[in-house]
Design brief:
Blueprint lengths: L11 H8 L3 H10 L3 E3 L5 E4 L2 E2 L5 E5 L2 E5 L4 H9 L3 E6 L6 E7 L2 E6 L3 E5 L10 H4 L6 E3 L1 H10 L4 E4 H17 L2
Antiparallel strand pairs: 1-2, 2-3, 3-5, 4-5, 4-6, 6-7, 7-8, 9-10, 9-11
Helix pairs in contact: 1-2, 3-6
Length: 180
């Protein structure tokens, strides 16, 4: 992920070299992982929420423009890739712009102030296709009215505060931070 965060597609050969692993093994591992997206040359352009393709959720990290598959990704990716992020998104119900400053300790600034993060019902998510079953339903919601509307239209969904969604992301990704 840190290599992808440099803003350029990542070749399997480069991954093998930087990890000291066999190229054939790296290629096989990448082929077996769900949620890895490659370009026409076979280079990784997206992995587990971080993508080089434009999405509704933009992160500016150290002058590099990156994108995320869902709102929640923008809350934990800065910690994984090692930087403070300015996040630019919007509420899908009100079209209100959402602006955040996020670092390894949490959300430092948020506009508007009352932002929720939607999550789908747990039984609706399939890891094999996380974008189509999870990410498309994880959005920033501008205020309690938007959150209420989302919940009324999405059976079994829930909405977390920014702080709670950040903490959930920290807990969910802590093993990524302890592995080299």
């Amino acid at each position: 992920m840190r290599e992808l965060a440099r803003g350029k597609p990542v070749a399997a050969r480069a991954l093998a070299a930087m990890t000291g692993r066999d190229l054939t093994g790296v290629v096989a591992t990448l082929a077996g992982w769900p949620n890895v997206e490659r370009d026409a040359h076979g280079r990784v352009i997206a992995f587990s929420g971080l993508t080089l393709r434009p999405t509704a959720h933009r992160l500016d990290v150290g002058g590099q423009e990156l994108h995320a598959w869902c709102a929640w990704d923008t809350l934990f990716l800065p910690t994984i890739i090692g930087g403070r992020a300015s996040v630019h998104s919007h509420c899908p119900l009100t079209d209100t712009p959402v602006r955040l400053s996020v670092d390894h300790d949490g959300v430092r600034a948020a506009e508007p102030k009352a932002i929720g993060v939607s999550f789908p019902a747990p039984d609706a998510t399939r890891c094999e296709d996380i974008r189509a079953t999870f990410c498309c339903q994880v959005r920033f919601l501008a205020g309690p009215r938007a959150a209420d509307r989302w919940l009324a239209d999405h059976d079994g969904a829930l909405v977390l505060s920014l702080d709670d969604a950040f903490e959930l992301g920290r807990l969910a990704t802590r093993t990524c931070l302890t592995a080299d």
